[in-house]
Each structure stands twice: as C-alpha cells, then as structure tokens.
Amino acid sequence: MRTSPSDLVSPAVRRAAAHLGKLIRQARLARSMTQSELAVRAKTSPSTVMRVEKGGVESGLGTVLLMLEQLGLLHHISELADPTTQALLEHKGRKRARSSAVADLDF
C-alpha cells in the first residue's frame, strides 16, 4: 500500500498548512476571485486550489507559490528570515555542510 504525504506530516505541519490555506482563501475572496479563476492563473486545477485552501499537504511547493504570486502575496515569502540560522552560520563560518563520518571504501 502506498503512503500518502498527508500520513507523514506532523501536527505542526498540518496547522501551518491549514493556516496557509485559510490565508489563500481569504486573499482570493477579498479579490473577488473564484477557485477556477485562481486555478487558471496558477496553472493548476480548481480541485488543487480547493485542497490547498482546506489545508491539504499533497500539493507541490511550486503550485502553492504560484497561487501566492497570483494573489500578490509572494513577496511575504521572500521576506522570511531566520535570525538563529544566520547567527549559527556566522559563528561556524560554513558555506556548505560536510559529512562528519569517514567513508569506508575498503572493498
């Protein structure tokens, strides 16, 4: 039996998806746009718009970003920042991650 992405998400992810879906729905309604109109603009199906608005986690990130773009909300994603990550990167001075384990190449 195949595992669905919705079976693997944590409660926190479910809450975040529901919140994002609610924001998308409110933005769409505030702009007097139907789900079908948003679907055409975001190059997806009305059923996908409906699932995203209901907090579904199965849709791809690109689809959600296209919806946000069509609603004029994409710039909010660009403004996201994590000061903790920035502080850790500055402290460690790393530009990329490296494995700490030594590869065993002895055949």
From TrEMBL:
Matching SMART domains: HTH_XRE
SUPFAM superfamilies in the cross-refs: lambda repressor-like DNA-binding domains (SSF47413)
CDD domains in alphabetical order: HTH_XRE
Domain of life: Bacteria
A Pfam family this chain is assigned to: HTH_3
Location of the HTH cro/C1-type domain: 24-80
Protein name: Helix-turn-helix transcriptional regulator
Originating species: Stenotrophomonas oahuensis
